[in-house]
UniProtKB/TrEMBL annotation:
Spans traversing the lipid bilayer: none
Gene3D superfamilies given in the database record: Aldolase class I
Keywords: Dioxygenase, Flavoprotein, FMN, Oxidoreductase
Molecular-function annotations in GO: dioxygenase activity; nitronate monooxygenase activity
Organism: Ephemerocybe angulata
Annotated protein name in UniProt: 2-nitropropane dioxygenase
Domain of life, source organism: Eukaryota
Record has Protease as a keyword: no
Length: 321
């Protein structure tokens, strides 16, 4: 969750019994070090011990500057994070290779999670990259993902069939808001679930109160897939199959109408100065209708856990009957 999850949120999720990730985009090395230090302080983990959070990297941003990319990945190893998450790149194999180099060099072996939206990519991640974890992202996911991919309930079984019974764990992602959904995905064969938007509604996220209110006020049909916000911000390097899912606003409407992109960019830049969320992007998944309150991250984890267990027990009762 670039721009959404830093060291504080990642640490609080892990402290509550989940596994937290901080997402990187255009942060400097010093900023990343500070976020990791924050997480270590919250979790009260000694400097020479594994830090039980993960760090997520966006492939095309890594490709922008190889020296910076290598430094950012190396920082995660230096801070002994428990997992690395790679997504959204045409050259992810290159960064998997660098990850392997660091494992060999440092002796530290964080788990490698690779996010995929298609069964074919999952096959490469499993067979060629030897990923420890596959994250199956359905088109319901907020933020960036496959523009013309599969709904999660279709994608998950397809990827499970690629992994086979002895393959890596498959984590389901995309539009998940409740423990009942997590339970359903576990019964389908997922080993776990990754939630993004739900945790943006925590005070520990990097979202502002105004952004959180937009999510609270939104209904699921307002969560739309589009290139509008990337075009408005001038980000053109996403893989061709990728767009983003966010809450519909005036930027989206103008883009859909075919307004001059330069005018859209000017309006967006002006709106960014005042956090005018009628134009500035609020990334959010299709599950927003099921999200109606702001809670601390630890309470979200607990709520998801309890609801998931309740539904799994209900399924068990059906089988026994």
């Amino acid at each position: 969750m670039a721009f959404g999850s830093g060291g504080k949120l990642a640490a609080e999720v892990s402290r509550a019994g989940g596994f937290g990730f901080m997402g990187l985009a255009f942060e400097t090395p010093d900023q990343v070090k500070q976020e990791l230090a924050t997480a270590r302080s919250i979790l009260d983990v000694p400097a020479d011990s594994t830090l039980p959070i993960g760090v997520g990297y966006i492939g095309w941003i890594l490709d922008e500057s190889e020296p910076k990319a290598k430094e950012l990945i190396s920082i995660a190893f230096e801070h002994r994070v428990r997992a690395i998450w790679l997504s959204h790149g045409d050259n992810l194999g290159k960064w998997v290779g660098y990850y392997r180099e660091l494992v060999e060099k440092t002796g530290h072996h964080p788990l490698l999670a690779v996010q995929v939206s298609f069964p074919e990519t999952a096959q490469v991640a499993i067979d060629d990259w030897k990923a420890d974890i596959i994250v199956a992202q359905g088109i319901e996911a907020g933020g960036h993902g496959a523009a013309e991919g599969f709904p999660l309930l279709t994608l998950l079984p397809l990827i499970l069939s690629k992994a086979g019974p002895n393959g890596p764990p498959i984590i389901a992602a995309g539009g998940i808001a409740t423990g009942s959904q997590v339970a359903a995905l576990l019964t389908l064969g997922a080993s776990g679930a990754a939630l993004g938007t739900r945790f943006l509604l925590s005070p520990e996220s990097l979202y502002s109160d105004k952004q959180r209110q937009v999510i609270l006020d939104a209904e699921s049909p307002q969560s739309v897939r589009t290139l509008a916000f990337d075009e408005a911000r001038g980000y053109h390097n996403w893989p061709k199959y990728v767009d983003g899912r966010a809450i519909r606003n005036a930027t989206y409407d103008d883009f859909q109408k075919g307004d001059d992109i330069n005018v859209i960019r000017q309006k967006y830049a002006a709106a960014s100065e005042t956090e005018d969320l009628d134009r500035v992007v609020v990334w959010a998944g299709a599950g927003v209708s099921a999200m109606n309150k702001v809670l601390p991250a630890k309470d979200i984890v607990q709520e998801l856990h309890e609801e998931c267990l309740s539904h799994l027990r209900g399924v068990n009762g059906l089988v026994k009957s």
